[in-house]
Amino acid sequence: VQLAESGGGLVQPGGSLRLSCAASGFSFSNYAMSWFRQAPGKERELIGAIASNGGGTHYADFVQGRFIISRDNAKNTMYLQINSLKPDDTAVYYCTVGVENRRFWGQGTQVTVSS
Fold this sequence. Notes:
Elements: E1 2-6, E2 9-11, E3 17-24, E4 33-38, E5 45-50, E6 57-59, E7 67-72, E8 77-82, E9 91-99, E10 102-105, E11 109-113
Parallel strand pairs: 2-11
Antiparallel strand pairs: 1-3, 3-8, 4-5, 4-9, 5-6, 7-8, 9-10, 9-11
């Protein structure tokens, strides 16, 4: 199982980003996927998850409609659209999947929100 996040960077407050998570080594379309983030000095926190067929999503309370998780099973890729970025969104963003009782993580992609 391999997960590779991309799309992070430096963005001004109020801006938007779309992060990608490219997956390989397992049957992507059979598994729910999740996004987490970890801000400096804080614990890793769940952003949300998406069902294997993309038909259902669940988000943490703090998301408040600013984050949208989607996936393209034909491309073995999951996405995280983040709108109205705030400095508090500065964090490393990770995708994760549970396969055969093990949890796998990507290396993360850094998002920095600053003017």
